[in-house]
Amino acid sequence: MTEPSAMPENRAAFGHAQPAHKNATIVDDGRLRPHQGLSQEGIDVPVVGAGRPYNCPSTFNQRGSRSGGRPLAVNPAAFMRRSSPSPAIVDQDGPPDAATKAATLGLEFKPKSCTRRMASGNVRIASRANQTQLCDLQWLRSRTPPARLAPEKTIRIVDLFCGCGGFSLGVSEACRRAGLGFEVAYALDADEDSVRVFQKNFVPNRIDCVRIERVFQGQARLRLNNGERVLAAEVGPVDLLVAGPPCQGHSDLNNHSRRTDHRNALYARVARVAQVLRPAVVVIENVPGVIHDKGKVTSRASRRLEAAGYAVKTITIDARALGIPQARRRHFLIAFDSGSKELWRDFRLPSSRQYSVGSVLAGLEDEPNHSGDLFRTPSSPKSGNRERIRFLFEKRLFELPDRLRPDCHKDGNHTYKAVYGRLRWDGIANTITSGFGSMGQGRFVHPLRPRMITPHEAARIQGFPDWFDFSAVSSRVSLQTMIGNAVIPKVAAVLANHLFSCSLLDVGASSNQHDVGTPRAAGSAS
Fold it and tell me: Which of 181, 461, 500, 503 gives 154 a disulfide partner, CB atoms 3.0 to 4.6 angstroms apart?
């Protein structure tokens, strides 16, 4: 790993940004479609917060790893542009509003910019149009984070099942663009490698490398035990709790334990954490199939949150709607103080330029030839798959004929057409999973080179900037798992910005000192 030339000293602060204002496009079915074309507009990169060492069964240093390292440095290169329409991408509660009606008549809807009341006065929050520039190509290709300023107000979050930190990274960028500080008050994940990467990039106040069941009870109505009370007191006020419970048990790609995986129950456990830590807002991410779980985990979580005084909304977002060159739909459950229902506005994604696979991968084609770094080199296929890759390039194909597939994939009626496929430079990738190192687990062959995509290229498609540091990982399997399972940062950034614009997060007025069952009202101390 190469070190950035100048690392600012204040890791807890984020720079200020001037909000812009543009329009969203809404169609008559209540769904959104982004505008066409690619954006060349650039913004600064976000940074991550400072804090204390974490509490973990494993021993780490203040940076969260046994070895040194700073954010990754990769030379940016020119990128190709492509214009293409994007599919409808938002499913949510509630009827179409005036903006939808205007769109059906071919008119532009121009929402008013949002001003949120804070303790020190009015603070301008980034409009939906300003989100167009969130996590764009310049941000993605940046080799170092920007200098940090010291904002007066700070968003304090808790990140459960944090993985390598995609959710926190997106929220941090939304905070930076809004002129707010960002602090990870508490994080938790059971995977040691993920904890190392998260710690190195965010330096949370506390992070536990442990299963969530060992920290929080499962039954919602139980009073706080001593461990929960101590943790709540240590964590302190929480503005936002985000969680990405394991999704494999809900995924349509899982033919073994789909809908019945024992890990599915961890989704509802997040409601207990909300009872203990009393955040103003809770956001839970998972695959859309979570709503079909046989244990009805979304319904159980919703009922528990509502019993604790939260109102609940759900939305489904396709990453392509944000210009991300990946077909990745995710379900989000959003809970906030039921006394603030009037503040909620229907969620609309900003107008976005659609990027292609080539636009985010350009400049990395020959990177494996110049580095032996695990992050920058592809996996080594077995001889049979090497021959299949060679055939695709010799015949200029993107789909492998059935006759050349293994016996288990030769049936022409199979539904996994993308398996053993090659990415298109000017197209959109299928969902990036932890199997991106294997030809037999998806369309993961590089579009221009006869090889698999590298972890760096997969991270680019997932939306991680080049400065984000994965150097704490020494296992290819661990690296692929954390990248494939991550929440896309731009999706998280847009969601956070929506919460700001709805005034559901009021910085500086947090308190989690409550009786169990009563959430802290957003924007009020108790």
Answer: 181
